[in-house]
């Protein structure tokens, strides 16, 4: 079954760029049947969808983060990545990567998730 | 933006109870509503998609209903492993998704 694994620094300094990578295994990122999303969870809080990318590189970002966000994909490594610039303490969260599947058009749901990685923004 | 609310925010129940959680959308979202279960320190797990379709491998004691703005997740005969936080998520405004604030189900 599909597995996703986040990797990246657990500590980022304020005003710097947060960079994470998600590696997909036991499944191809380039199958074309799915999108690939990033979702975060602030400490003790709910879930916030960050953005998604298709294997072709097409992206859609949450407007609340769009000005600071860049997502990319490396099909040869079966990986996709997230960069969030100018971070502050408010960006401290557990970051998840997830597969987005569409059982029918517009009906996007997240059926496989990484285990999550805590990123702390602190000096 | 479509806002999602859930009620109650938390509830206490006993093993064997029937539990119902409500999710409400600020706009008509048809049946574009999914439910997740999250346990402490773990990633959310998809339970129900398109309001009432059971995800593969999810026990049949979980069921979902609703359309438009009002939705429910029901757990029949609550089991010890069901104590968790439950989130709804709308995909009507895809590709912009949003989640409800969560409902924590704990042991009475």
What overall form of chain B do the CA principal axes indicate?
globular
User: How many β-strands of chain B, per DSSP?
Assistant: 11
Computed Rg of chain B: 13 Å
Supply the number of helical segments of chain A.
0
Low-confidence stretches of chain B: none
Mean pLDDT of chain B: 96
Seen as an oligomer or otherwise, the chain set is: heterodimer
Unreliable residue stretches of chain A: none
Structure report:
Chain A is mostly beta strands. In chain A, 0% of the residues lie in helices and 51% in strands. Chain A is built from no helices and eleven strands. Chain A is globular. Chain B is built from no helices and eleven strands. In chain B, strands 2, 4, 5, 6, 9, 10 and 11 form a seven-stranded mixed β-sheet that branches. A four-stranded antiparallel β-sheet of chain B has the order 1-3-8-7, with no helix packed on it. Chain B is globular and about 35 Å long. The model of chain B has no long low-confidence stretch (mean pLDDT 96). At the A-B interface, strand 5 and strand 10 of A face strand 5 and strand 10 of B.
